Amino acid sequence: MTKDAAASPVTERQRLGGWLPSGEAHLARYRAELAKKARERAGTAPRTRAVEDLATLLDSDPVLRMDLTRAIGQARDAGYVLGYASIDELMTIVDYLMTYAPPFSESALIHCPLNAVLDWPMCMPSGYALFRDPALNAQLKHVLNCWSGFLSGPHSRTHLNTAPPDGWFSPQADRHIGLAQFVCDPDKPYWGFTSWNDFFTRRFRAGARPVEEPDNPKLIVSACESTPYNVEHGIELRDTFWIKSQPYSLQDMLTPRQHELARRFEGGSIYQAYLSAFNYHRWHAPVSGTIVRAYGVDGSYYSSADSEGEDPSGLNDSQGYITALAARAVIVIEADDPALGQLACVFVGMADVSSCMIEALPGQHVRKGDELGFFQYGGSTWCLLFEPGVTQRFVVEPPFENPPLLKVNAALASVTTAR
Protein backbone atom coordinates (compact mmCIF):
# COMPACT_ATOMS: atom_id res chain seq x y z
CA MET A 1 0.00 0.00 0.00
CA THR A 2 1.48 3.30 -1.09
CA LYS A 3 1.52 6.41 1.03
CA ASP A 4 -0.75 8.17 -1.51
CA ALA A 5 -3.29 5.34 -1.37
CA ALA A 6 -3.29 5.41 2.40
CA ALA A 7 -3.87 9.17 2.37
CA SER A 8 -6.74 9.00 -0.15
CA PRO A 9 -9.09 6.08 0.47
CA VAL A 10 -11.75 5.47 -2.17
CA THR A 11 -15.03 7.10 -1.11
CA GLU A 12 -17.28 6.17 -4.05
CA ARG A 13 -17.45 2.93 -6.02
CA GLN A 14 -19.43 1.98 -9.09
CA ARG A 15 -21.63 -0.94 -8.02
CA LEU A 16 -23.13 -2.88 -10.91
CA GLY A 17 -26.46 -4.36 -9.89
CA GLY A 18 -26.92 -2.35 -6.69
CA TRP A 19 -25.93 -5.18 -4.34
CA LEU A 20 -24.03 -2.68 -2.16
CA PRO A 21 -24.31 1.12 -1.96
CA SER A 22 -21.72 3.16 -3.86
CA GLY A 23 -20.90 5.47 -0.95
CA GLU A 24 -18.16 4.28 1.39
CA ALA A 25 -19.40 6.51 4.24
CA HIS A 26 -22.66 4.57 4.47
CA LEU A 27 -20.86 1.23 4.36
CA ALA A 28 -18.48 2.35 7.10
CA ARG A 29 -21.45 3.24 9.35
CA TYR A 30 -23.12 -0.05 8.50
CA ARG A 31 -20.01 -2.06 9.42
CA ALA A 32 -19.61 -0.17 12.70
CA GLU A 33 -23.25 -0.73 13.66
CA LEU A 34 -23.05 -4.38 12.65
CA ALA A 35 -19.95 -4.86 14.80
CA LYS A 36 -21.68 -3.28 17.80
CA LYS A 37 -24.69 -5.59 17.48
CA ALA A 38 -22.39 -8.59 16.97
CA ARG A 39 -20.43 -7.82 20.16
CA GLU A 40 -23.67 -7.49 22.13
CA ARG A 41 -24.91 -10.85 20.87
CA ALA A 42 -21.58 -12.66 21.31
CA GLY A 43 -22.02 -13.15 25.04
CA THR A 44 -25.49 -14.64 24.76
CA ALA A 45 -24.97 -17.63 22.42
CA PRO A 46 -22.15 -19.96 21.33
CA ARG A 47 -20.71 -19.52 17.85
CA THR A 48 -22.30 -21.36 14.97
CA ARG A 49 -20.39 -24.55 14.18
CA ALA A 50 -19.51 -23.46 10.63
CA VAL A 51 -18.08 -20.16 11.88
CA GLU A 52 -16.16 -21.90 14.64
CA ASP A 53 -14.67 -24.26 12.03
CA LEU A 54 -13.66 -21.25 9.92
CA ALA A 55 -12.02 -19.65 12.95
CA THR A 56 -10.18 -22.91 13.70
CA LEU A 57 -8.88 -23.11 10.11
CA LEU A 58 -7.57 -19.54 10.26
CA ASP A 59 -5.98 -20.12 13.65
CA SER A 60 -4.31 -23.40 12.65
CA ASP A 61 -2.99 -22.33 9.23
CA PRO A 62 -0.15 -19.81 9.72
CA VAL A 63 -0.20 -18.61 6.10
CA LEU A 64 -3.94 -17.92 6.09
CA ARG A 65 -3.70 -16.28 9.51
CA MET A 66 -0.82 -14.10 8.34
CA ASP A 67 -2.52 -13.06 5.08
CA LEU A 68 -5.85 -12.18 6.70
CA THR A 69 -4.20 -10.31 9.58
CA ARG A 70 -2.12 -8.34 7.10
CA ALA A 71 -5.12 -7.66 4.81
CA ILE A 72 -7.10 -6.29 7.76
CA GLY A 73 -4.16 -4.12 8.77
CA GLN A 74 -3.59 -2.86 5.22
CA ALA A 75 -7.26 -1.87 4.87
CA ARG A 76 -7.22 -0.02 8.19
CA ASP A 77 -3.90 1.67 7.34
CA ALA A 78 -5.46 2.81 4.06
CA GLY A 79 -8.12 4.66 6.03
CA TYR A 80 -11.10 2.30 5.82
CA VAL A 81 -13.47 1.76 8.77
CA LEU A 82 -13.99 -2.01 9.00
CA GLY A 83 -15.67 -2.40 12.38
CA TYR A 84 -13.02 -4.95 13.40
CA ALA A 85 -9.27 -4.99 13.97
CA SER A 86 -8.55 -8.72 14.32
CA ILE A 87 -9.58 -12.11 13.00
CA ASP A 88 -11.44 -12.89 16.23
CA GLU A 89 -13.47 -9.68 15.98
CA LEU A 90 -14.23 -10.51 12.34
CA MET A 91 -15.44 -13.99 13.32
CA THR A 92 -17.82 -12.41 15.86
CA ILE A 93 -19.39 -10.35 13.08
CA VAL A 94 -19.57 -13.34 10.68
CA ASP A 95 -21.32 -15.36 13.38
CA TYR A 96 -23.86 -12.58 13.91
CA LEU A 97 -24.67 -12.66 10.19
CA MET A 98 -25.68 -16.32 10.39
CA THR A 99 -29.08 -15.18 11.72
CA TYR A 100 -29.33 -11.96 9.72
CA ALA A 101 -32.10 -11.26 7.21
CA PRO A 102 -31.41 -8.27 4.91
CA PRO A 103 -33.83 -5.35 5.35
CA PHE A 104 -35.02 -3.25 2.42
CA SER A 105 -33.46 0.19 2.00
CA GLU A 106 -34.41 2.65 -0.71
CA SER A 107 -31.28 4.77 -0.34
CA ALA A 108 -28.58 2.31 0.69
CA LEU A 109 -29.55 -1.31 0.08
CA ILE A 110 -27.06 -3.84 1.45
CA HIS A 111 -28.05 -7.15 -0.09
CA CYS A 112 -24.66 -8.78 0.57
CA PRO A 113 -23.69 -8.08 4.19
CA LEU A 114 -20.68 -10.41 4.32
CA ASN A 115 -19.34 -8.80 1.15
CA ALA A 116 -19.73 -5.42 2.89
CA VAL A 117 -17.71 -6.70 5.85
CA LEU A 118 -14.91 -8.13 3.66
CA ASP A 119 -15.08 -5.36 1.06
CA TRP A 120 -11.62 -3.87 1.64
CA PRO A 121 -9.49 -6.75 2.99
CA MET A 122 -10.40 -8.75 -0.13
CA CYS A 123 -8.77 -6.16 -2.41
CA MET A 124 -5.71 -5.36 -0.32
CA PRO A 125 -2.30 -6.74 -1.42
CA SER A 126 -2.47 -9.61 1.10
CA GLY A 127 -6.13 -10.31 0.36
CA TYR A 128 -5.90 -11.38 -3.27
CA ALA A 129 -4.10 -14.69 -2.69
CA LEU A 130 -5.97 -15.25 0.58
CA PHE A 131 -9.41 -15.33 -1.03
CA ARG A 132 -8.24 -17.70 -3.78
CA ASP A 133 -7.12 -20.32 -1.24
CA PRO A 134 -9.08 -23.60 -1.76
CA ALA A 135 -9.22 -24.52 1.94
CA LEU A 136 -10.53 -21.09 2.89
CA ASN A 137 -13.15 -21.16 0.13
CA ALA A 138 -14.27 -24.65 1.14
CA GLN A 139 -14.88 -23.38 4.65
CA LEU A 140 -16.55 -20.19 3.39
CA LYS A 141 -18.93 -22.45 1.46
CA HIS A 142 -19.93 -24.13 4.75
CA VAL A 143 -20.48 -20.72 6.34
CA LEU A 144 -22.61 -19.50 3.44
CA ASN A 145 -24.58 -22.76 3.41
CA CYS A 146 -25.23 -22.26 7.12
CA TRP A 147 -26.54 -18.77 6.47
CA SER A 148 -28.60 -20.04 3.54
CA GLY A 149 -30.14 -22.59 5.90
CA PHE A 150 -31.32 -19.77 8.14
CA LEU A 151 -32.60 -17.79 5.14
CA SER A 152 -34.58 -20.87 4.06
CA GLY A 153 -36.37 -21.06 7.41
CA PRO A 154 -39.36 -19.19 8.87
CA HIS A 155 -37.29 -17.01 11.23
CA SER A 156 -35.77 -15.21 8.24
CA ARG A 157 -39.06 -13.44 7.45
CA THR A 158 -38.40 -10.49 9.79
CA HIS A 159 -38.64 -7.88 7.04
CA LEU A 160 -41.28 -9.57 4.87
CA ASN A 161 -43.91 -6.98 5.75
CA THR A 162 -45.35 -3.66 4.58
CA ALA A 163 -43.75 -1.49 7.28
CA PRO A 164 -41.35 1.19 5.97
CA PRO A 165 -38.45 1.73 5.80
CA ASP A 166 -37.30 -1.93 6.13
CA GLY A 167 -40.26 -3.90 4.81
CA TRP A 168 -39.91 -5.64 1.44
CA PHE A 169 -43.65 -5.23 0.80
CA SER A 170 -43.68 -1.50 1.58
CA PRO A 171 -44.71 0.96 -1.17
CA GLN A 172 -41.08 2.11 -1.42
CA ALA A 173 -39.86 -1.44 -2.08
CA ASP A 174 -42.73 -2.21 -4.43
CA ARG A 175 -41.64 0.63 -6.71
CA HIS A 176 -38.40 -1.32 -7.32
CA ILE A 177 -39.81 -4.86 -7.33
CA GLY A 178 -43.28 -4.67 -8.85
CA LEU A 179 -44.79 -7.31 -6.58
CA ALA A 180 -47.98 -7.58 -8.65
CA GLN A 181 -45.92 -9.43 -11.29
CA PHE A 182 -45.07 -12.25 -8.88
CA VAL A 183 -46.91 -15.16 -7.31
CA CYS A 184 -47.88 -13.89 -3.84
CA ASP A 185 -50.99 -13.21 -1.74
CA PRO A 186 -51.17 -9.99 0.36
CA ASP A 187 -53.99 -11.56 2.40
CA LYS A 188 -51.74 -14.33 3.74
CA PRO A 189 -49.09 -13.97 6.48
CA TYR A 190 -45.81 -12.89 4.87
CA TRP A 191 -47.79 -12.78 1.60
CA GLY A 192 -47.48 -16.54 1.36
CA PHE A 193 -43.67 -16.73 1.40
CA THR A 194 -42.26 -19.43 3.67
CA SER A 195 -38.81 -17.82 4.09
CA TRP A 196 -36.48 -15.07 2.87
CA ASN A 197 -35.08 -17.42 0.21
CA ASP A 198 -38.61 -18.25 -0.92
CA PHE A 199 -39.18 -14.51 -1.43
CA PHE A 200 -35.79 -14.03 -3.12
CA THR A 201 -36.50 -16.81 -5.63
CA ARG A 202 -40.10 -15.66 -6.20
CA ARG A 203 -41.75 -16.71 -9.45
CA PHE A 204 -43.47 -14.53 -12.04
CA ARG A 205 -47.19 -14.95 -12.53
CA ALA A 206 -48.25 -16.82 -15.67
CA GLY A 207 -47.89 -14.56 -18.68
CA ALA A 208 -45.68 -11.97 -16.97
CA ARG A 209 -42.63 -12.93 -19.08
CA PRO A 210 -43.86 -14.53 -22.32
CA VAL A 211 -41.29 -16.34 -24.44
CA GLU A 212 -40.47 -14.31 -27.54
CA GLU A 213 -41.03 -16.25 -30.76
CA PRO A 214 -41.12 -19.65 -29.05
CA ASP A 215 -41.24 -21.54 -32.37
CA ASN A 216 -38.37 -19.64 -34.04
CA PRO A 217 -35.21 -21.73 -33.43
CA LYS A 218 -32.97 -18.95 -34.77
CA LEU A 219 -34.04 -16.51 -32.04
CA ILE A 220 -32.13 -16.87 -28.76
CA VAL A 221 -33.84 -15.50 -25.64
CA SER A 222 -32.32 -14.22 -22.42
CA ALA A 223 -31.89 -16.93 -19.78
CA CYS A 224 -31.99 -14.36 -16.96
CA GLU A 225 -33.48 -10.98 -16.12
CA SER A 226 -30.17 -9.17 -16.55
CA THR A 227 -28.17 -6.29 -17.99
CA PRO A 228 -25.65 -6.85 -20.82
CA TYR A 229 -22.03 -6.64 -19.70
CA ASN A 230 -19.78 -7.96 -22.46
CA VAL A 231 -19.56 -9.81 -25.79
CA GLU A 232 -16.36 -11.35 -27.13
CA HIS A 233 -15.57 -13.53 -30.12
CA GLY A 234 -12.77 -15.98 -30.86
CA ILE A 235 -12.62 -17.29 -27.28
CA GLU A 236 -9.40 -19.13 -26.42
CA LEU A 237 -9.26 -22.62 -24.95
CA ARG A 238 -6.95 -21.34 -22.20
CA ASP A 239 -6.10 -17.68 -21.62
CA THR A 240 -4.64 -15.39 -18.95
CA PHE A 241 -7.95 -14.46 -17.30
CA TRP A 242 -6.16 -12.77 -14.38
CA ILE A 243 -4.62 -9.90 -16.39
CA LYS A 244 -6.09 -6.43 -16.91
CA SER A 245 -8.17 -7.29 -19.98
CA GLN A 246 -9.47 -10.51 -18.34
CA PRO A 247 -9.89 -12.61 -21.49
CA TYR A 248 -12.23 -15.55 -21.09
CA SER A 249 -10.56 -18.93 -20.61
CA LEU A 250 -12.80 -21.81 -21.65
CA GLN A 251 -10.92 -24.65 -19.96
CA ASP A 252 -10.84 -22.75 -16.67
CA MET A 253 -14.48 -21.68 -16.98
CA LEU A 254 -15.81 -25.16 -17.79
CA THR A 255 -13.06 -26.92 -15.71
CA PRO A 256 -10.15 -29.07 -16.98
CA ARG A 257 -12.23 -32.24 -16.51
CA GLN A 258 -14.47 -30.96 -19.30
CA HIS A 259 -11.62 -30.50 -21.78
CA GLU A 260 -13.52 -31.87 -24.80
CA LEU A 261 -16.48 -29.65 -23.99
CA ALA A 262 -14.19 -26.62 -23.80
CA ARG A 263 -12.65 -27.53 -27.17
CA ARG A 264 -16.14 -27.54 -28.71
CA PHE A 265 -16.48 -23.81 -27.95
CA GLU A 266 -12.88 -22.84 -28.79
CA GLY A 267 -12.96 -19.93 -31.24
CA GLY A 268 -16.63 -19.30 -30.52
CA SER A 269 -18.43 -16.38 -28.90
CA ILE A 270 -19.50 -15.45 -25.38
CA TYR A 271 -22.19 -13.13 -24.03
CA GLN A 272 -22.11 -12.02 -20.37
CA ALA A 273 -24.75 -10.16 -18.33
CA TYR A 274 -25.28 -9.36 -14.65
CA LEU A 275 -28.31 -9.47 -12.37
CA SER A 276 -29.30 -6.66 -10.02
CA ALA A 277 -30.42 -6.87 -6.41
CA PHE A 278 -34.09 -6.50 -7.38
CA ASN A 279 -34.06 -8.85 -10.38
CA TYR A 280 -35.79 -12.20 -10.77
CA HIS A 281 -33.18 -14.86 -9.98
CA ARG A 282 -34.33 -17.95 -11.82
CA TRP A 283 -32.75 -19.26 -15.05
CA HIS A 284 -34.60 -20.28 -18.20
CA ALA A 285 -33.64 -22.10 -21.39
CA PRO A 286 -32.44 -19.71 -24.14
CA VAL A 287 -33.30 -22.28 -26.85
CA SER A 288 -35.28 -25.48 -27.22
CA GLY A 289 -33.18 -28.62 -27.00
CA THR A 290 -31.85 -31.48 -24.89
CA ILE A 291 -29.72 -31.04 -21.77
CA VAL A 292 -26.44 -32.86 -22.43
CA ARG A 293 -24.48 -31.67 -19.39
CA ALA A 294 -25.46 -30.06 -16.07
CA TYR A 295 -22.95 -29.74 -13.25
CA GLY A 296 -21.88 -27.49 -10.41
CA VAL A 297 -18.36 -26.16 -9.85
CA ASP A 298 -17.00 -25.26 -6.43
CA GLY A 299 -14.91 -22.12 -6.47
CA SER A 300 -14.12 -18.83 -4.79
CA TYR A 301 -16.61 -16.46 -3.18
CA TYR A 302 -14.74 -13.21 -2.51
CA SER A 303 -11.82 -13.28 -4.93
CA SER A 304 -11.30 -10.22 -7.14
CA ALA A 305 -8.78 -9.49 -9.86
CA ASP A 306 -5.70 -7.74 -8.50
CA SER A 307 -5.06 -6.50 -12.05
CA GLU A 308 -7.96 -4.10 -11.52
CA GLY A 309 -6.51 -2.60 -8.35
CA GLU A 310 -8.29 -0.60 -5.69
CA ASP A 311 -10.13 1.63 -8.14
CA PRO A 312 -13.81 2.64 -7.86
CA SER A 313 -14.94 0.01 -10.39
CA GLY A 314 -12.42 -2.72 -9.56
CA LEU A 315 -14.76 -5.38 -8.20
CA ASN A 316 -17.22 -4.86 -11.03
CA ASP A 317 -14.39 -5.20 -13.52
CA SER A 318 -13.67 -8.63 -12.04
CA GLN A 319 -16.80 -10.10 -13.66
CA GLY A 320 -14.84 -11.68 -16.50
CA TYR A 321 -12.23 -12.99 -14.06
CA ILE A 322 -14.74 -14.72 -11.78
CA THR A 323 -16.13 -16.85 -14.63
CA ALA A 324 -12.98 -18.97 -14.22
CA LEU A 325 -12.81 -18.97 -10.40
CA ALA A 326 -16.15 -18.40 -8.68
CA ALA A 327 -18.71 -21.02 -7.65
CA ARG A 328 -20.92 -21.67 -10.70
CA ALA A 329 -23.30 -23.97 -12.52
CA VAL A 330 -22.87 -25.11 -16.13
CA ILE A 331 -25.81 -26.28 -18.25
CA VAL A 332 -25.18 -27.34 -21.87
CA ILE A 333 -28.07 -27.62 -24.33
CA GLU A 334 -27.97 -29.47 -27.67
CA ALA A 335 -30.29 -27.23 -29.71
CA ASP A 336 -33.17 -28.82 -31.62
CA ASP A 337 -31.95 -26.88 -34.64
CA PRO A 338 -28.73 -28.73 -35.62
CA ALA A 339 -27.33 -25.55 -37.19
CA LEU A 340 -26.92 -24.07 -33.68
CA GLY A 341 -25.08 -27.08 -32.25
CA GLN A 342 -24.61 -26.81 -28.50
CA LEU A 343 -24.95 -23.74 -26.30
CA ALA A 344 -23.47 -23.56 -22.80
CA CYS A 345 -25.07 -21.50 -20.04
CA VAL A 346 -22.71 -20.64 -17.17
CA PHE A 347 -24.44 -19.23 -14.09
CA VAL A 348 -21.85 -17.63 -11.80
CA GLY A 349 -22.31 -16.92 -8.10
CA MET A 350 -20.88 -13.63 -6.83
CA ALA A 351 -20.11 -12.59 -3.24
CA ASP A 352 -22.75 -13.88 -0.79
CA VAL A 353 -24.17 -16.51 -3.16
CA SER A 354 -24.23 -19.79 -1.26
CA SER A 355 -25.50 -22.07 -4.00
CA CYS A 356 -26.41 -22.32 -7.68
CA MET A 357 -29.35 -24.72 -7.81
CA ILE A 358 -29.65 -26.84 -10.98
CA GLU A 359 -33.12 -28.20 -11.80
CA ALA A 360 -32.67 -29.40 -15.41
CA LEU A 361 -30.88 -32.75 -15.72
CA PRO A 362 -28.96 -34.42 -18.57
CA GLY A 363 -31.28 -36.17 -21.01
CA GLN A 364 -34.18 -33.83 -20.28
CA HIS A 365 -35.72 -32.00 -23.24
CA VAL A 366 -36.54 -28.34 -22.59
CA ARG A 367 -38.50 -25.85 -24.62
CA LYS A 368 -37.31 -22.29 -24.98
CA GLY A 369 -38.28 -20.50 -21.76
CA ASP A 370 -38.46 -23.59 -19.50
CA GLU A 371 -36.89 -23.17 -16.08
CA LEU A 372 -33.33 -24.52 -15.63
CA GLY A 373 -32.49 -23.53 -12.04
CA PHE A 374 -31.91 -20.53 -9.79
CA PHE A 375 -29.48 -18.56 -7.64
CA GLN A 376 -30.24 -19.30 -3.99
CA TYR A 377 -29.13 -15.89 -2.75
CA GLY A 378 -26.84 -12.98 -3.57
CA GLY A 379 -25.20 -11.22 -6.50
CA SER A 380 -24.81 -13.04 -9.76
CA THR A 381 -23.72 -12.96 -13.40
CA TRP A 382 -24.21 -15.37 -16.30
CA CYS A 383 -22.64 -16.26 -19.65
CA LEU A 384 -23.87 -17.86 -22.86
CA LEU A 385 -21.33 -19.68 -25.04
CA PHE A 386 -21.77 -20.23 -28.78
CA GLU A 387 -19.80 -22.68 -30.90
CA PRO A 388 -17.50 -21.26 -33.61
CA GLY A 389 -19.25 -20.58 -36.90
CA VAL A 390 -22.54 -19.59 -35.26
CA THR A 391 -22.89 -15.87 -35.99
CA GLN A 392 -25.14 -13.81 -33.75
CA ARG A 393 -26.77 -10.40 -34.05
CA PHE A 394 -27.46 -9.22 -30.51
CA VAL A 395 -30.50 -7.11 -29.66
CA VAL A 396 -28.18 -4.80 -27.71
CA GLU A 397 -24.75 -4.56 -29.29
CA PRO A 398 -21.52 -3.54 -27.53
CA PRO A 399 -20.06 -1.21 -26.39
CA PHE A 400 -22.46 -1.45 -23.46
CA GLU A 401 -22.81 2.10 -22.15
CA ASN A 402 -25.90 2.35 -19.91
CA PRO A 403 -27.42 -0.78 -21.48
CA PRO A 404 -31.10 -1.60 -20.84
CA LEU A 405 -32.29 -4.49 -18.71
CA LEU A 406 -33.16 -7.51 -20.86
CA LYS A 407 -36.14 -9.35 -19.42
CA VAL A 408 -36.00 -13.10 -19.06
CA ASN A 409 -37.43 -14.86 -22.15
CA ALA A 410 -37.05 -11.67 -24.22
CA ALA A 411 -35.08 -11.67 -27.47
CA LEU A 412 -31.33 -11.71 -26.84
CA ALA A 413 -29.83 -12.55 -30.23
CA SER A 414 -30.73 -13.88 -33.65
CA VAL A 415 -28.55 -16.37 -35.46
CA THR A 416 -27.78 -14.98 -38.90
CA THR A 417 -25.39 -17.69 -40.10
CA ALA A 418 -24.67 -21.08 -38.63
CA ARG A 419 -22.00 -23.76 -38.74
TrEMBL record:
Pfam families in the record: PS_Dcarbxylase (PF02666), PSDC (PF12588)
Methyltransferase recorded as keyword: no
Protein keywords: Decarboxylase, Lyase, Pyruvate, Zymogen
Top-level taxon: Bacteria
Domain called L-tryptophan decarboxylase PsiD-like: residue spans: 49-176
Protein's recorded name: Phosphatidylserine decarboxylase family protein
